[in-house]
């Protein structure tokens, strides 16, 4: 199931362009987010010469004017991480993939002031961009990435006294809902609003047929990890990026 979660996550946060090179997915999105601008070696191709395949990827990304970034998961060739280290690639963003096996008994959120839309709208995009400190260029790329999705999406904002305090995105594929761009306004953190946001997204997903959930979180984000632990998410595997 872990590899299926990896596929779900690639679909949920797409790229502007994807190339397939002998079983490796090369993703491009004008350099915004490593997730959408990295090489994902999740399928073993015919050519097992790692050095040749890496050099080919390096040439493609260099011609595109983008950094060369590999995503290292349990599904890549066993020696890839070591080969990249020998080629001078450093490690970035050790992250955790976590799952919640059942949405049956999730709590009912205590905060009821919220909006959830299945279409990307300016209010959500403006709120998310402000809370994350995105530049106008990043905001524009995000719009392009999310607008073209063929999956069911739930754009959620939680309010307190009409003030937006947290926002996030749920993406449903199969029986799973993935959580993305979960963020609480810096002025309202450590008050449980992130948990309330997630509960609203989970209940929305449950109402349209989802029965399980997954998320991706950077390992040094201790506040988020504590929140997810409270909601009974459990780590399934880790991943990181190799960057040259």
From TrEMBL:
Residues 114-244 form the N-acetyltransferase domain. InterPro entries: Acyl_CoA_acyltransferase (IPR016181), GNAT_dom (IPR000182), N-acetyltransferase_domain (IPR052829), Rv0428c-like_C (IPR056935). SUPFAM superfamilies: Acyl-CoA N-acyltransferases (Nat). Pfam families: Rv0428c_C. The lineage of its organism: Bacteria, Bacillati, Bacillota, Bacilli, Bacillales. It comes from the Bacteria. Coiled coil: none annotated. This is Acetyltransferase (GNAT) family protein.
